[in-house]
Amino acid sequence: RVVKGIETLRRNGLPFAALCVVSDPRPGLAAELYQFFLELGCEVLGVNIEEREG
What we know:
Layout: H1 2-11, E1 17-22, H2 29-40, E2 44-49
Parallel strand pairs: 1-2
């Protein structure tokens, strides 16, 4: 449903931003995330790394 909503925004010329929370960072993930959101047409991307206590 989210992707359908994004497609509706794009079809109507409305920009959108995304916030992504990463719980398990690994090598290469940043490039994968960037490419994924770029292909969706995301104008602004925020990335937060989940903090672990302990």
